[in-house]
């Protein structure tokens, strides 16, 4: 469920994408854990003004989400 590589996601689009990715996790406990982590990350970076830094955070979040989904899809 990885968005187009190189596409510039806005923070709200990223937030929604990551929450949708959580639905693919195998257990409710994992889903709850990662939803909480996503919310915390979103609020902690809400005051970020530097667009270059925002894009770095977005790219890293997309890569991390892909890694997590790949990790748990192998365990099924």
UniProtKB/TrEMBL annotation:
Q: Where is the Complex 1 LYR protein domain?
A: 11-61
Q: Which CDD domains match?
A: Complex1_LYR_LYRM9 (cd20269)
Q: Name one Pfam family in it.
A: Complex1_LYR
As for family, the record states:
Belongs to the complex I LYR family. LYRM9 subfamily.
Q: Which PANTHER family match?
A: LYR MOTIF-CONTAINING PROTEIN 9
Name of this protein: LYR motif-containing protein 9
């Amino acid at each position: 469920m990885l968005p187009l590589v190189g596409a510039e996601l806005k923070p709200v689009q990223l937030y929604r994408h990551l929450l949708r990715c959580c639905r693919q996790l195998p257990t409710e406990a994992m889903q709850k854990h990662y939803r909480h982590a996503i919310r915390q990350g979103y609020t902690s970076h809400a005051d970020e003004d530097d667009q270059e830094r925002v894009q770095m955070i977005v790219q890293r979040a997309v890569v991390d989400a892909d890694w997590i989904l790949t990790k748990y899809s192998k365990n099924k």
